[in-house]
Every structure is written in structure tokens, then in C-alpha cells.
Design goal:
seven-stranded mixed β-sheet; globular; alpha+beta; single chain; Cathepsin B, Chain A; 26% helix; two-stranded parallel ribbon
């Protein structure tokens, strides 16, 4: 039986019914679902190779309940910020990768948009297709959130649109990679993030405690999952019930979950790759 967080956001764990939600063949409009994360080969790159960002001050698990209760009382988490539209609607419709294997760019794009909301910056709809197409030279290929995170630090992200300095929705046409686009993209850079720069982009991760710490600090985290071959944006550490925690994620599939939201719990909530967006250009 499918379980729900706060009565409406589905929880994905090892239950077969919840896993059917994690592996749909079609989106809400009947289009093929895209993923695009390239699974990490643990036989070549064992988990022990993941090192911690050394300067992070961690929030101990003994404080998680108090942090969560404070966020609920103050309605201050990224969950609350995202769902602060009229009548509890989202501030923006979640981005849709449209069946292309660009999830690894969409997870970072969502993190920039969410962080802009948290920083009280104007809402701008970004187009992660631009970053992925430029990186992959127009090819529909998979990658990792660390790869798009690096691009966002160095170049920024494009606005969605057909005007000067914008990138049309779902296009992979490199003709739009113009000087005007690059100048516009620079307005939407990741300025500060937590990322292990001693590792390759496919090999960057955060521990569970590091991930929880950043989510309690309202820093969204692009995360990769081997089990789903997918990359998403983690926006909050949530208490499903007393003593049971999950990770609230925002997906890049149309008509999925609750406004694109679901909770990944247990083994399904442990990422194989993760970075953290701390500050974006203002």
C-alpha cells in the first residue's frame, strides 16, 4: 500500500507499489519518461572513495527533531517556501525534461530556482536543456549532478524562452549558444556550494549527515540514485513519523508525485552522488 507524507506527498521505499511510481513508463501527458543518470560502477569506484567536504559543521541526528519542529512551526523550510503559492500551490511548476536523458542537469536547475526563492530573489524559469546540450554538444546523453554543478559554477544557467539570451524549451540546438546567451547565463551562477573538488564529477557525494545538515539549513542538494538511474533535487529532510526520516525531492517529470514532490525513504533515499547549492548569484 502506497504511503504518504502529510497525506498527499507519496513515499517511495522498498514497497512494490511505491517503486511502480519510481519507474513509470509515461509522464502525466503520456510522453516517455526520461532519466539519464549514468550509474556509478562500484567495482571500479568503491563507496569508500567518497570523502567529506572537510569544513562542514554537521548537525547531529539528536537535533533533527528540534530542527524539523522549528521549521514546521515557522513554515520556514524549502518545502514551505516552494509550496507558498496561493492555496498551498507551488511557486512554480516543476521543470520537465521531456523524455531526454538530462535529469542530471535538471536536478541542478531546480536547486538554483529553489535557492533563488529562499534568497527572496525574483522567480526565473531556467532551462537545464541548455546546460546539458552545451556540455554534450547537442547529444541526448546521460551524466551526473556533479557535471552540471560544475557548469553552473563556471557558466550559470539559461533562462527558458525564445527571446535574446534565452534557450527554447527542450531544444538541443547549439545555434542558441550565443554571446547573448552566455551573458544572460552568468546571472544565474552557483556562487557557493558544497562539493568534493578532490573527486571527479561522477564521483562526488555527500554523507547522509552532510546531506541532512544542508537540507536543514535550506540548501537544496542535487542527488543521483543508482537504483533509479536518475538525478533529482533534494529539498528537505522530513520526519515521516517519530524516529523515521526521509528525503523530500523535486523531480523533473511532468504530472508526477505531488507537484513533482515525493519522499525517498530508507535505502531508496541514500544517494550515490550529491552536491549542495549554498548561494546563487543575486
Amino acid at each position: 500500500m502506497l504511503s504518504y507524507y502529510k497525506g498527499s506527498i507519496p513515499i517511495i521505499n522498498d514497497d512494490p507499489q511505491s517503486l511502480s511510481l519510481a519507474f513509470p513508463a509515461r509522464d502525466g501527458d503520456g510522453h516517455s519518461i526520461g532519466r539519464g543518470y549514468v550509474p556509478r560502477d562500484y567495482s571500479v569506484y568503491p563507496e569508500a572513495m567518497f570523502d567529506s567536504p572537510s569544513q562542514m559543521q554537521l548537525i547531529p541526528e539528536s537535533e533533527w527533531d528540534a530542527r524539523y519542529d522549528e521549521q514546521e512551526a515557522q513554515q520556514s523550510s524549502l518545502e514551505h517556501i516552494f509550496l507558498s503559492g496561493p492555496g498551498g500551490q507551488p511557486r512554480f511548476v516543476n521543470l520537465d525534461q521531456n523524455g531526454h536523458g538530462y535529469c542530471w542537469a535538471y536536478s541542478t536547475g531546480h536547486s538554483i530556482m529553489i535557492k533563488r526563492l529562499a534568497m527572496n530573489l525574483p522567480l526565473v524559469r531556467l532551462n537545464p536543456h541548455a546546460a546539458a546540450a552545451i556540455i554534450k554538444r547537442g547529444a541526448d546523453e546521460g551524466g551526473w549532478c556533479g557535471l552540471s554543478g560544475q557548469f553552473a559554477r563556471e557558466n550559470g544557467y539559461a533562462e527558458e524562452g525564445t527571446g535574446p539570451g534565452q534557450w527554447p524549451l527542450h531544444s538541443r540546438n547549439l545555434q542558441y549558444d550565443t554571446p547573448a546567451l552566455r551573458a544572460s547565463m552568468a546571472k544565474y551562477k552557483i556562487v557557493e556550494n558544497w562539493v568534493d573538488l578532490t573527486r571527479q564529477v561522477y564521483d562526488q557525494n555527500l554523507t547522509q549527515q552532510q546531506l541532512a545538515t544542508q537540507l536543514f539549513l535550506n540548501n537544496p542538494c542535487p542527488v543521483d540514485f543508482n537504483w533509479q538511474s536518475h538525478s533529482l533535487c533534494a529539498i528537505r529532510k522530513v520526519r515521516v513519523e517519530r524516529g523515521s526520516w526521509g528525503t523530500l525531492i523535486l523531480n523533473s517529470w511532468k504530472g508526477w508525485g505531488r507537484f513533482g514532490l515525493a519522499v525517498y525513504q530508507g535505502s531508496k533515499g541514500i544517494p550515490d552522488g550529491a552536491i549542495c547549492t549554498r548561494t546563487v548569484a543575486a
